[in-house]
Amino acid sequence: MRSRCLYLFIVLTLITLCCANEQTTKNVNCENLLVGQYFCDKPVVDNNTQEISGCTKEGTATVPCYPLKGILCNEKLFNGSMVGFHKTIPCRYTNGYSYIIALGLSIFLGWLGIDRFYLGYPAVGLLKFCTFGLCGIGCLVDFLLIALQIILPSDGSNYVINYYGPRLIPLFINNDTFYKETGD
To answer: For the whole model, what pTM was predicted?
Structure first.
């Protein structure tokens, strides 16, 4: 009985070792590694904007990722400290326009159009300047649009908002949206 158990243990150990060797010699693309086969650096956050450094206008940034020790990908055997690929992560692109400043300009100098000049809309700013904020109605509308973050800077960037500030995240519904059926 002992010899059978020992024989079974040896056979199972050899099978496991053979299968493990087959998995480590398989060459794959590093970007196709599974979660747990690599780790990525945390993105660097800029202290002034509270956003990820290196964010592009398209709203993406890259972080270096390291395949774990013994992983073979892109025809290299990695040791856990070599960069294997760069992962693209989403981010909010900012260009230095402060939400607090834009809102303050809209409240106190909106009737002169200074808020629109600050955000990069000189034609609307000049219209508001010449008509005293469209007789006050334009000031109120612009204040609401800036407060709700509907009007953004003209270069397509987002506002610089404090970490615990009133940041809005728009939600979109498209063909990839999953609808959960209710039990009605």
So the answer is: 0.69
